[in-house]
Amino acid sequence: MKILGIIPARGGSKTVPGKNIKLLEGKPLIQYTVDVAKESKYLTNLILSSDDDAIIKVANQLNLEVPFKRPSNLAQDDSPTLPVIQHALSFYQDKGIYFDAICLLQATSPFKTTKFLDEAIKKFIESGADALVSVKKVPDEYNPHWTFKVNKVGGLELSTGEEKIIPRRQDLPTTYHRDGIIYLTKSRVILEENSLYGSTLAYIQSPLTSNVNIDTMEDWLKAENYLKNNKI
Predict the structure, then answer these.
(1) pLDDT at 77 over 50
(2) What integer best gives the mean pLDDT of the chain?
(3) Is 92 helix (H, G, I), strand (E, B) or coil?
(4) Three-state secondary structure call for residue 88
């Protein structure tokens, strides 16, 4: 299976200015993901999708392929991810180059490992699913079977639509949430179905070392503290 690895990194971050190339323990944030992805046994190509000259310059220094500069209309604060991926695939298809699937890797999740990445890709291939996402377990207190929404008369009802609450924690079904570390999707699903998930979705549970996802300065400080206290 030919898989295109895509690292999306736009400029203009407001919560952590310049975060994609901000130095984290002496390395640009994006380098953590680049180093991991380059060692993968399964990625056919690895590219950067960015609108920002400074990020592109750092990518070039890291020998990361930058085949195009992302259009500014795909690099706004509210720009969704799907069109960014579609743009990359269409760029290659216009050149007669086709990929079976993409692997989206967020630079803001720096502590993934090559072992975990390859396990995810292998599971995706073997599953035959349209897509695979990395997930974390939802803590019991936030399990959807224990969460409520306001009903039409102003009271509370279970968000799942069930009539009775599950009384014991031990009886709760295990539930998961996307953690944004890895997305794998077949190209056909992205281009023809306009979807990142398709109709069959596989998953892989992320290790605890992947718990930091940098969106705020508080997250950045957590990442710094993690590196100071652990060896990656």
Answers:
(1) yes
(2) 94
(3) helix
(4) helix
